[in-house]
Amino acid sequence: MRIFIGFLKFILFAIIMLEYGVLAPNSWRATSTVVHCIERERQALLQFKDGLGADDSSTYAWSSWGSQKHKRDCCQWEGVHCSNQTGHVLILHLPGDDLDQLSLQENYLGGEIPYQLGNLSQLQHLDLSSNGLEGEVPYQLGNLSRLQHLDLSSNGLEGEVPYQLGNLSRLQHLDLSSNGLEGEVPYQLGNLSQLQHLDLSSNELEGVPYQLGNLSQLQHLDLSFNNLGGVIPYQLGNLSNLQKLFLGSDDSALKINQKNGGGGPIPEWFWALLTPKLFYLNISCNNFVGTIPSVPLKSISGAWISVASNHFEGELPTSIGSLESLESLILRDNKFTGRLPITLRNCPNLRFLDIGKNHFSGHVPSWIGISLHELEILSLQKNNFFGDLPIHLCYLSRLHFLDLSLNNLSGKILRCFGKFTQMALESDSYPFDISFGIDNYVEFSSEISALLMWKGMERTFRKTNLLKGIDLSSNLFMGGIPTELGNLVRMVSLNLSKNHLGGEIPSEIRQLTSLDSLDLSRNHLYGPIPSSLTQIYGLSVLDLSNNNLSGKIPIGTQLQSFNSSSYEGNLDLCGKPLEKICLEEEKPQELIEFK
Question: Residues with Cβ < 8 Å from 26, sequence gap 6 or more?
Fold first, then answer.
């Protein structure tokens, strides 16, 4: 692989030198010796040709370059000169128009970006993304006055963002995401009057310069997953053409410049960002406080909204139901109170609803099942919902993950949960997954995540199309485990722990052959462990502790592989891995013959 990487780097350097005629005379022809070119170098040259967007009809003399049998020897290609002894390419000369496009993404490039790239004065498109490039971003790139597209994302670049990039007056697309860039975001980027796409996410950048509010053409702004901190400048309210806004992070701790030390309602300038053009809003994981007002929500066409992990409070405005195009609503980890607005039933396209870790109260609304038939993920985790579950939840046939844990729900588990067809049918894909790659929004494939309880821990999932499960733990459910749950043969996780469930573990559980995690602990289950449980070969988490189970733990490699804590608290349970030996396993004492 080193030869391949090094040769691509050579090509990159060669094209820079050729711009000035350093490497080649006026016309190079391939060597006439019998030495043939190196196969890896031939492949690299063809990739380089593709990266330039060239074809046989272009102004370059590409007709001799190809994969056909009579073109296999790259040393015979126009503009390629090889060593007579080794066959390695020594010189590359590509006569023709000045280079205006260079795309070498995903080519295993390493090392530093040559600063001489800044000399390619005609360059309009430069894409070196998804390689292994290191070092700093050359400030000389600020000399590319014709550049419209610059993508250096997904490399190992370090240092500061060169302020000279602010000189690129024609730039429309700038992506420096997923690197190790640090320091302040240069205010000079506010000079890029033609910029439509700015992505600086997943770095270690600090601060949000108010000059970004000058980018009147900006449609996509992603500053997420940095160390921004501080206050969001009010000038961002001038970005009237925004369609996607990402300010979410795990560490940002951004604040909105509010009166009286940060409390009270959010200023009007921030809500001015919510225009009919905005269809994706992610401001999760910050220090935003206050209530969400009613009026601005009526003015946006948002399909994806996340305000998770902030300090929002109060009741949700009824105007949220006016977002008829809404497909994802993530409100988790705030301080919202009251009941879920009934107007949400006017959002028939809603597919992902996460209101977990708030203070919502009341019964679980029946209108969720009556009106939101497209729901695939529903999380009401850790609120104050109480009472019996509405049977209408069973109408959600597309549901593939349901989390009602940590509430005060009571009554029996609905038998009709066995009709969740997406957990019963085998399917490799969905119209979207929680990394959300649906028809017109494929670029969201890594922008939305689901924070769900999994194996007793909160975990973030970016792709959950195969995640199918039910979590009803930490409630007040009574009665038995419905045998109908055995119909959900594609379910991967089932957590019914910490309830008041009784009866025996149904034998139908053997049908759940896709289970990875099963937690029935801290209930009042009794009777033997079904021997059919040994048929669930993929089980990696099992907890049957603190029940009234009895008898011998069925013998099977799977069940004996778990720690004894998976079975503890069942006084009448015996057999490995418990230390308690079953009576039938005790060796009979030898009879002593007295004479």
Answer: none
